[in-house]
Each structure stands twice: as structure tokens, then as C-alpha cells.
Amino acid sequence: MSDMLRDLSGDTALFSLNTATVRERWDLAEIIDGCVRHNISSITPWRDQVAKCGLGEAAIRIQDAGLAVTSLCRGGYFPAANAEGRQTAIDDNRRAIDEAATLGAACLVLVVGGLPDGTKDIEDARSQVFDGMSAIMEHARACQIPLAIEPLHPMYAADRACVNTMRQALDLCDELGEGIGIVADVYHIWWDPELADQIARAGNDNRLLVFHVCDWLVPTNHLFLDRGMMGDGIIELKKIRAMMETAGYRGSCEVEIFSADDWWKRDPDEVLRTCIERHQSVV
Ligand code: ZN
Predict the structure, then answer these.
(1) Is pTM, for the whole model, over 0.70?
(2) Which phi and psi (to 5°) does residue 175 adopt?
(3) Which residue in 7, 15, 137, 269 has its CB near the most CB atoms, within 10 A?
């Protein structure tokens, strides 16, 4: 479709808002109202925002606003220094699955966790991730909540996720079977020499569950909180979106921007307007 033919105010069907993008200035109720104002049809809330609002209240507000819940962010963080910590993580992930079901979310995003405090053994952390995921698969399948593993850029291997490439995430999916797939987040995967091959592989296996977009700024001033608005960085967004669609992905482009010094400080209405405009012009 030609960009020129698009209605800039109404074409938000394939746009989803990850609520992290405006989380600093709006609570969940304000975000939901903002989505209605800006004609946004889908949302991915974060669990802490949902908890603050109250799970039941959040579910009602989202439903009343007519919003689809493309996913819930997030579960994961399986590795821990001892058995008790690992069990706590498993229990928390089971609750996250229940919350996703209550919200009518299409899936639960998992950031799998990194090295437990005081440890250096990344292979062990990775096997703990496999064990933790194995322990929750049955509950996820029973609740019909697919799990979406988000491989994170390797710079987060120690403290957030020791699953760092799509190949690694898809290998995990293959070991775990049905009811599991991946989040393809351009911020984490744009650099991967296997990008095209692994997106195609994921599509073949029906594992492309979520597509996150933002941009990679040069220079990047903070490892976590300096993500760019689409179009302001060096990621070939249209090219990656085309790979996703060629692989059979028909879901939303979900905008997820952590930006402590820039976008989080701006008027959230301006942020949403910009997200929608950039989604149409550069993604
Ligand atoms: Zn993401």
C-alpha cells in the first residue's frame, strides 16, 4: 500500500502501544484513555501498572475501551541463586499467566533473566531458564496463554536475559514444544547476521508472536533507557517489517520505547501522535 493513500488519523489497526512508552507521566487508566483519544486499538500493559490499577479494574477498563491486549509484559527472570528463589520465580510466572488470561492477552512476554547474584556461570543460568520454562509450560497451555520469549541484545546477558539471539530462543522453543514462540524486537535483533534466516524459521514454525519497534540511536547514551523513536536511529525498520510479513506475521507493530531523558519527559499526547505518525511513515 502506498503511504500516501493512508489516512494518517485512522490507520492504527496494526499499531499497538506498549505502555512502557508513556509510563513515566501516565498511569494505566490515563494510558487507556489516551489510546481511545488517539484511536489506538491494541495495548500491551506491564504487570506493575496492572497491579497498581488492580487486575480486575484494569481488565474492565481495557475491555470498556475496546482495546485488544496484544500481550502482557512480562514474566521470566527464572535463574536464582538457590532452589527457593527458583521456585519463587516459577510461582510468579504462573501468576503472570493467570493475569494474562484475566486480561484476555494474546500471550505473555518472557524476559528470561540473567546471572543470579554472585554467579558467573552463564551456561548454568541458561539451563535454569530451560528448567523454569519447563515448569510453567503445562499451566500456560492449560490457560491457553502462549509464552513469547524475548531474546535481548547480548549487552543484557548478565542482568536481564541470557537468551540473546533468535536462534537461541527458537532452539528453546523447539525443545519445549507447542504453545511457545518469540518476540522479535528490532532493538535486540537488528544487528544479528542471521536476522533474515531466523525470522523465516520462526515464521515457518508459527513462532512469531510479537513484533516490537523503536530505534537504535548512535551514540546510545544508556544501555537501557536511551531507545529512539522510529526513524531517529539506524535500524532498517521497513526491511525488518517486510521480513516479518513475508514470514507470515500478521500481528501488530508494537511501539516500545524506554527513553528516560527524552520521550518519557514529553507530553504523552505528543508521544502518541509521534509514534502513530512514525509508524506510518518509517516502519
Ligand atoms: Zn521489547
Answers:
(1) yes
(2) -70, -30
(3) 15
